[in-house]
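Figure-free illustration: sequence to structure, shown twice.
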Amino acid sequence: MQEEPSLTDEGKEQRTTTSAAPRSEAFRVGIRKLYHHRCAVCGVRALGPGDGSAIVDTAHIYPKSEGGADDLRNGLCLCKNHHWAFDEGWLTVTSDHTVRVHPDLPSDADYNFIREYDGDTLHLPDDERFHPHLLYLEARRELVGETFDMSEVS
């Protein structure tokens, strides 16, 4: 006879130790407010019921894992899909805030949610003082390797 499943793992706690860079709640909240809870790439804005959780994440342009600053100019508000694509290196942002897609992006339709924004300008905060800063954009591209076509978009 099989044992009945348990809904939770209560009583099965394990102690672990991890090391991670501290995340700033002010950075997370600030980026979402500056971008009006919209993805900088596609413009989607969706909030969950009740607590108002958002479909968007806050992403560091120059990654926190590399010591990236919690400066609002080092942040982007991205939907779950575009945050993943940015972190994976499938898309980047030029110095003039243009979205560029990695040349090796697979050609099948599953990647159209990335490809369709190639050459578009980011949806940016109204206040230019909080636009992504060149320092972070250039450091990001240097970190991931300059494999993108950074020529001007026509």
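We now fold a second protein in the same way, so the two outputs can be compared directly.
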Amino acid sequence: LANWMDRTLLRNRVAFRMAQATCMEWTPRGEFVEVVLNGKHVGNYYLCEQIKIGSNRLNIQDNYEDALEKTLEKCGYLMELDNNYDETYKFITRHYSVPFMFKDDVLSDDIFAAVKAKVQGIEDNIYNGNFAAAYEDMDIYSVIDQWLIWELTMNHEFLDPRSVYYFMNGNGKLSAG
């Protein structure tokens, strides 16, 4: 991760350390690196683990390893909110135009439709002021933790998302992380 927008060079590390102390399912580990290319300093970066489903990463059901039946209950999905909108399986929510993209292949059109409907249902409930119904399908504690970390590190990612991650484990709640 490039630290070029952060003059302190600390925000990424602080955000990840704070996230490790929350209820979020998994947070990447990383280290600072100074990159020198052909004798020229090209920047300070935070070299960290890639976000992906795995037993030593985001430990949720894996589409290929766990899903013998192509049902939503047997699949876990990692989704990225990213305005680049460059993945194969993706959708934009109706009211707030949030770009959700699946980081892995989707096993069936039915599963894609079910995940999209669940996410859209959460947004519909928030839009209509029915917060209790939205929270039934969303892990509100992980979303609160994410929001607090963003506020404390002055991260305004929600305004123009580029790498915001959410996941669903089977037909469980939509969770931030």
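Summary for the second example: The chain has a mean pLDDT of 88.
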